[in-house]
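Handover notes (outgoing to incoming on-call)

Open items:
1. Beta-mannosidase: sequence verified, structure written out, both below. Nothing else pending on this one.
2. Nothing else urgent.
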Amino acid sequence: YGLHLVLLLNIPHIQCSSNGYYDAFFLDPYYRFNDVMYRWISLDNWTYSRTFKTPFDVRKWQKVNLVFEGVDTVAQILINNITVGRTDNMFSRYSFDITSIIKEVNFVEVRFLSAISYAAEQSRCHTAYSIPPACPPPVQKGECHANFIRKEQCSFSWDWGPSFPTQGIWKDVRIEAYNHYHLIYFTLTPFFVKSAQQWSLEIESIFDVVSSKPVSGLVTVSIPKLQTQQTYSVKLQPGEGSIVLLVNINENATVETWWPNGHGKQTGYNMTTVFIMEAGYKIEKFSKAYFRTVELVQEPISGSPGLSFYFRINGRPIFIKGSNWIPADSFQDRVTYDTLRLLLKSAADANMNALRVWGGGVYEQDEFYDICDELGIMIWQDFMFACALYPTDQNYLESIRAEVTHQIRRLKSHPSIILWSGNNENEAAIASNWFSVPYADREVYVRDYVMLYVKNIREIVLAEDKSRPFIASSPTNGLESVKEGWLSQNPYDTHYGDTHFYDYSNDCWDWTLYPKTRFASEYGFQSWPSFSTLEKVSSAEDWSYTSNFSLHRQHHENGNDEMIQQIERHFKLPQSTNPIKKFKDMIYLTQVMQAQCVKTETEFYRFSQSEIIKGEGHTMGALYWQLNDIWQAPSWASLGGLRSPTNHHFLSSLKDAVGLEKTQLSASVSQQDSIYIFDLQTTAIAPFVSLDVGSIKGRFNENGFLMTKKRKLVVFYPWEPTTVEELEKSLSLTSLMDVV
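Beta-mannosidase structure tokens:
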């Protein structure tokens, strides 16, 4: 309608500051020791550039902006050799006015500064006091001062992931040209008015108004399936103008609410919003409206000190069951819609109803939340701060305020998001003095903590989104932490809030060790990924539990030894004289061990839901660590299949079991429409039967099960085209009786 033009830009030409132009094809960065071999890339400065023609007459437009949806991270932006702006936050959206600079033919440059160098310089400049931790533990082979740059924190390394401090343009870049006004954000927030027993929808639209005078017009909102249509007279003020509309849903319409997976449908309603302003310019916005309420209930419990901590969705208490989500790849451009959908669909099919987007990664892409809306997966959304203290100088706070404001406006229309959480484990870091801060200096860090998470992030959340609860940290004591000045003495107190719990030294089969908490938001055990996964990123000399590769890949201190110690409690260690067979058996046993440990702990939290013992209990959430992997290495990740219809309890450790016999396992494969049926047969009881089809992507409806009958059917859902022949050729069948 002559109002708005968009030109998408790809900026492919890459220049390295010290080594000239590169047009190289690197090996897989995950292959063997490449995380260290390619470290030089992140230590250098890189420039992205291209020439482009403007496909419109710039004289016809009042304003032309260069918009970056995501820049990773520190960069100088130039058009036609003129600096138009700078970036320093991976999580913010940047818009630069290039109205007076753009020509018919243009040269754009994005000059990046090494994230490692920048973080080190920012730390050096912070002379008043140190902001720990300076560096990750040596076992992580990572980079220092991640807390001084607003970037994916785990890109500097973590105890399950490599150090790949990327630099580049990680989201869309475009040129926007417009007259009069331009819509920047459009958000929907549902509310249920109890007194009237009626739903309403708050619509907030934020504009860049180019006109020097107010712009008047009409807005019409239509939701046909709810027999709702309303028209409003509005006026936009110059600058950043906003319109807030309250749409009352027709009281004669039956509103179907959005429910978590397993509790009902995920109904959404098509909605059209039309803006017709002065001069006849028109914007038509198509969106989906969802209706659901969320409450975080913290109230006294009969027979127990402390407070409850659970979520009510549409007035119904919901047990939160699921996992924690980390970035699906060190290189975000490789995370496709299909990758996200397969992982999230697998979680939903495994009867999960929630995931926690962990605060050391990234705010996920729009498609992630769209899929969660569709599948009924509730999202506990951390802000991106984790396991560290952070500076609170003015520039840093301004950057964070822009980041938080942008992310809330981008995400708050999603019904799947049920909670904003300020950070991961930073309340605990101060309370437990992880960084050995002298007591005399503690107050400065407490002040910084309150300044960042309460006086800035919380204030923005309260202003931008009144429909969801906010907690300052995880774990936290919730309202008790607030009462104690936002930092409790013991954030792991089982009588309040949520807890994170890890214990690698004691017997994981002993459920009496686990905290009878109100909400378990992190817990888990390590295992190695399958041999078929490791094989792709290693060579034959690496295939040993004590090889340099195996030690290099383990980023958790003493992790490999801890797994052996846990295995030894209940299983016999592999003794094969064939080194590859011994390695495969060891990998298999770590997975069996992990499955049993997580199963035991999860079941403990599930049955703690309905009881109070010695003042503890009413557990209303279990989110194990972690759903997915970022690379091929030992980690806490596990995802294997659909809910098993039966449960088994072993009366002794399997190493002490009497009567188990050597078994012969076999399988035949047949196709049934788009799925494949594996017909398994065994000559004796087979514990922990594992099916692996190598590089063929897909999932089994069951895996790692106890086979007590001679025959069992298992379904395989492929994620890519395959055949019966390929599956039979790739199939590896293992049970505990195969470990020698």
